[in-house]
Amino acid sequence: MLVIGIGGTELASQERDWLQHDACAGVILFTRNFASKAQVAELTQAIREAAPRPQLICVDQEGGRVQRFREGYSELPPLDNFGRLYRRDPGAALKLAEEHAWLMASEIRATGVDLSFAPVADLGRGNRAIGNRAFHADPAIVGDFTRAYVRGMHAAGMAATLKHFPGHGSVLEDTHFDDAVDPRPLEILRTEDLLPFVAGIDAGADAVMMAHVKYPAVAPEPAGYSPRWMKEILRQEMGFRGVIFSDDIGMAAAESAGGVAARIHAHLDAGCDVVLVCPPALVADSLAAMDGRPSSNTAGLISLMGRGACGWKGLLAEARYDGARAALAGPDFLVS
């Protein structure tokens, strides 16, 4: 199954055709798809009306530099703000992280979008792509934040997605542009980067997004198309029963699998339930590659749909909404 990207702020006729394909399970929205709260709500509704089956509508609304919807939405601080506060007041930091999760998820649900891919469970150890998107460098502290963030998202009626498994934070390279290789053995990874994912799964996380990072001491291929990582470690050893997403197959580090069709099949054959095809230029070939391939884990995808009533009127009437916004913009916790 695929979650696809579209080009603009309205559905084009070709994109309506894409939504008819049996393999199209959802749409991921980006800044290019956003003009206003009203517009993105209309786009979301248009996607649902154009498709013959339920569509999972997604976005990356982490906060900081990765916040696709901005005007009319709360300015969400990056996750490492919580790590810096943790040094002064661990309890306050964890409580605020939970409020951040609730606020982020509540605004996205009010817009009619099902899922924001969050939280980042990577360690904050200097990776070019992760940077201040990570809570902290210490695995145990990131684990505590991950639990808090999952709780906050669930309280808002949104499923939680841990990313990027088994950990993207301890290598320098940005997989959007380069191959990334982490040479450490599994024994070290278990005591480091994997710990926040263990915590998140224990907290009830609903989905996991894979990293395009290669861990040659564990498996020869990048984690996103590694049966060792997904079927043996994540499913069997760690007991994860939720949905596994690939990261975007348009990223440079995914190209080692070959052309578009090869990337699609490599990810699905290895254990991914859903492949992200974010660049619209790759969607037609990706859908063609899925012709004749049976869908998998449809029930799992349906479980990721947003829960509870959504709408801005109801959200703005909630006392928690104003309190969360004030807490995250207060003088002791500046947005940066």
Give an overview of the whole structure.
- By secondary structure, this protein is an alpha/beta fold.
- The protein has a single domain (2-328), classed as Alpha-Beta Barrel (TIM Barrel).
- Helices cover 39% and strands 12% of the residues.
- The two termini are 37 Å apart.
CATH class: Alpha Beta
The count of domains is: 1
Which sequence of SSEs, written as H and E, runs from N to C?
Answer: EHEHEEEHHEHEHHEHEHEHHHH
Low-confidence regions = none
The structure class reads alpha/beta
User: How would you describe the shape?
Assistant: globular
Please describe the topology of this protein.
Blueprint (H helix, E strand, L loop, with lengths): L1 E4 L7 H6 L5 E6 L7 H14 L5 E4 L1 E3 L2 E2 L12 H9 L1 H21 L4 E2 L22 H17 L5 E5 L20 H6 L3 H8 L4 E4 L16 H11 L5 E6 L11 H11 L3 E4 L5 H7 L8 H5 L9 H5 L2 H10 L8
Parallel strand pairs: 1-2, 1-10, 2-3, 3-6, 7-8, 8-9, 9-10
Antiparallel strand pairs: 4-5
